[in-house]
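Weekly puzzle thread! Below is a chain. First person to post its structure in token form gets bragging rights.
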Amino acid sequence: MFKEITIDEPVDKIAEDWDFLEDKVAAKYSSFREFGQNIYGVRRRSVSRTEVIDLKKGKFSSLLLGPKGIVGTGRNPLHFHITTAGTPHRIPHSLGYWHINDMDELYLPVPGTDESLGYFLVIMQTPKGNEGESFAWYCERCVTMLYEVHYRSGELGLKGFWRAEENAVRSYNSEARHRTCPECGHENPLGYVWNTAKDTEEERAARVLW
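Winning reply:
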């Protein structure tokens, strides 16, 4: 994939971190973490030969927004799935907004062994310069864009992503006019962040809805 790979530390010091599926290493990537030219996320999931299940949020599915409207797509174990740059996408009951990334995102569900939890890998190239990502909301009835907050992750770095996500959700939720569609008048549900521990009571109720 690359002509050469550069690292900041001696190989013998970081060699053990190359096995992303080793429990001690996977824990370091439970959110997102930069490693070389890429960003990795390693999530523990119940991964069978036919489906992926988040034990806290239920069966894993993904929605994409494209020319044909909103399309649902599954995540088949041991199959690569790619969401191309610029495609609005979200995970019901997990992401209470549409994520629009300037980078391609690659996903790979890997079953565990001996009935153990499997892994869900998320991989993308590290953004540079003006590259970034948006938190956006569309009307659930007519798909009109309601609200968007862009985070310049290439400039500001990955560490600020989760704070940016929380600020965007709180801003969207702060006023009913942000959620009211200017085209059809429908009032859309509140947004919520990825981390369930940060839900307010109202956001927890919204997570159940969509």
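Puzzle host: Confirmed. Bonus trivia for everyone else. The chain has six helices and 13 strands.
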